[in-house]
Amino acid sequence: MPGDDVLTVSNLRVGFRGERGTVQAVDDVSFTLRRGEIVSIVGESGSGKSVSAMTLMGLTRSRSAVISGSAVMADGTDLITASNQQLQRIRGSRISMIFQDPMSALTPVYRVGDQIIEQIRAHEKVSKAAAKARAVDLLSRVGIPRASERVDDYPHQFSGGMRQRVMIAMALSCSPEILIADEPTTALDVTIQAQILGEIERLRDEIGVSVLLITHDLGVVAEVASRVVVMYSGRVVETADLGPLFADPMHPYTWGLLGSVPRVDRERPDRLPTISGSPPSLLHPPTGCHFTPRCPHRFDLCPSVVPELADRVAPGHADRCHLSVDDKRAKRVVDGAIGLPALTEVPR
Amino acid sequence: MTVQMVAFAVKRLVSAVLVLFAVSILTFLIFVAIPNGDPALRLAGRTATASDIAAVRHTYGFDLPVWQQYLKTMGEVLSGNIQSYTQHVSVFSQIERGFPATLSLALGAAIIWMVLGIVFGLIGALRAGKASDVTITTASFIGISAPAFVVGAVLLYFLAFKLKIFPNGGYVPITQDPVSWFTHLLLPWFTMSILYIGIYAQVLRSGVLEVLDADSVRTARAKGLSPTRVLLKHVLRLSLIPIISLWGLDLAAVVGGATVIVEVVFNLNGIGQYLQQSVGALDVPPVLTLTLLGAFFVVLANAVVDVVYALLDPRIRS
Predict the structure, then answer these.
(1) Which pLDDT score is estimated for A348?
(2) Based on CB atoms within 10 Å of each CB, which residue in A169, B26, B79, B202 is the most buried?
(3) CA distance B186 to B167
(4) Which residues lie below 8 Å from residue A208, measured CB to CB, with a gap of 6+?
(5) For residue A57, which residues of chain B lie inside 8 Å, CB to CB?
(6) What span, in angstroms and rounded, lies between the C-alpha atoms of B239 and A108?
(7) Rounded to two decimals, what is the model's pTM?
(8) What is d(CA A284, CA A24) in angstroms, rounded to the nearest whole number?
C-alpha cells in the first residue's frame, strides 16, 4: 500500500572497538523510509552515513563492532537482531546496495551476465537459461543497448556510467523492496550523473522500489529526494521533507551546507564560503552537540547538553539544535541568503 | 588466428632465440675466462706425450680461435651430437639418464608447495593477527631462510641415517618400484618445498588480505552470496592469478635444474647433480648444454605463463 513504512530505523548506534577506545561511527540515528520514497542521507565523509547503510545490510558485523538499536522492515524483521544467515538471504533479494565506484565494484574476471545470474540463482530457484534471459531483460531496462550481446561482456568493456547501470540492474534483479545507493554518481561525470539519477527515479516508478540515497551533494538531493536526513559526526542533525529543508532549515550545519553551494544567480564571491574548522574525531568527539566547536551561534548550553532530535518547527521536521525557532530564522540569513558566517576565532 | 596474435607469437619466438643465444655465449665465455688449465692435457690422459696432446688439441679444436670453437661446440649441441670432455660419453644420453629424477623431484615438490602454500596462505589471511597466523608466518620465514643443504643434511642424518625411517639418499625409478620411488623422494620433496611453501604462503596471504577489502568482494557480499561462495569464487579466484603465474616460472626453474642442491645432498643423480659435477670438472659441453636447457625451460614457461595469465584475467586480453 502506498505510504506504508518499508523501513523504520530507531536509535541506531554503531561503534568500533579499537586499542585506543571506541569509535562511535553512528550515534542514535533514526529515520523512516516509506514505500516508493527516495530518502536522501546527506553528510560529509565521516558523518556515519555509509556505516549506517552498511549496517542495515549487516556488512559491518565483526568482533570489534558494537551495534544496537533497531531497523524494522515492513514484515517485522529487525535487521539489527537478525541472524547472519537471515541477513544473507535478505541481502540482494529484499534489500540491495550499489556502491560508489562502479569501476571496481564488479569482479573483473567474470562476465556481467554471469554476475547477475549468480545473484538471481543465489536467491531463487531458476534455471541458468531463465536467469540469463532475466539478466538480458534487466540490462535493456536500465538502458544498455544491445543487451543480448553485452550480457556476455566483461566489466572492463563497459564505461563508468554503463557499469553503474549494470550495478543497478544487478541490484534490482530480485525485485528488492529497498535499494540503498551509496554515492552512486560521485565517481561519474555530471552528465552521466543526471542519467543515472533519472534511471533510479524511473525504476522507482516502474518497480516501486524504495530508495535510500546516500550523498554529499545537495544538487543530487534536490534533484530526486522527497525527504532528507542530514548527518554530522555520527548523528542525525536534521530531517525534513525536501521543500522545508531548503526553505526553512533548522540546523546551523544545514545552513553551512546550503551556504557553501556556489550560487549562479548571485555575484561571485572572492572566496567560496565554507564551514570553518573540520569534522571532529569520532574517537574523542566534543561533548554535548558535536557541531559546537564549529558553530558561530553556539552558547553555554551547547557543549554541556546533547540536543534531542525533536520536531521543533513542524511535525515531520526534526532537528538537533538548542536555539529557538525564531532565533534560527534570524541567525541563518547571511548576506541575504541562508548560510553560516565564518567563526571569529579558530575552533579548538 | 588474428594478425595480432601471429605477430605476437613471432615476436616472442625471436626474443626467445635471442635470449638463448645470449645465454650460450655468456656460458661459453665464462669458461674461456676462468683459468681451467689445458683441457687437452686432461683429455689426453696421464701418460700422454707432447704429440699426443697436440693431436688431442687438434681433434677437439682447442687450437682454433675462440669464436670458431664456439660455433663448433654449438653446432654439436644443436645436432645432439655433443660429447663431454671428461667421460667420452654423449651429453644427451647423460641428460636422459638423469632427467627422470629431476623431473620427479621438481614436479612432486612443485605440487606439494603449491597446495600447501595456498592452504597456509589462506588460513593466515583469514585468521590474520591470531595465533595460527603468527605461527604460519614464523614457520614461513624459517622455511625461507633455512638453507636447503643444511635442512637436507640434517634430515638425512637424523631421519635416514640414525633412525632409519627414510632411505639414505639415492633415487629409484618409478618403473622399477613405485613405493620405493616414493619413499626415496619424501625427504628431498620436503627439503625442496619448505622454501617455496614459505614464499607462496606469504604471497598468497597478502594477496588475499588485499582482495578481502576489494570493492568487488564487498559487492559479492552485498549480493547475498554465501560466505563460502564469496571466498572461493571471488576472493580466491582473484588472489590466485599472480600465484599461478609465479608457479609456472618457478616450476620451469626447478625442472631446468634449480634442484641442484637437493639432488647433491640426497645423491639423486639428476641433471642438477650432473651439472654440479660438470662444473667441478670444468667440463664445458655438459655445462653449456644444461644451461641452455634450463634457459629454454624458463623462456618457454614465460611464454606459457603469459598465455595463461590472459586466460585467467580478461582485462589483459585487450
Answers:
(1) 47
(2) A169
(3) 9
(4) A35, A36
(5) 222
(6) 12
(7) 0.84
(8) 9
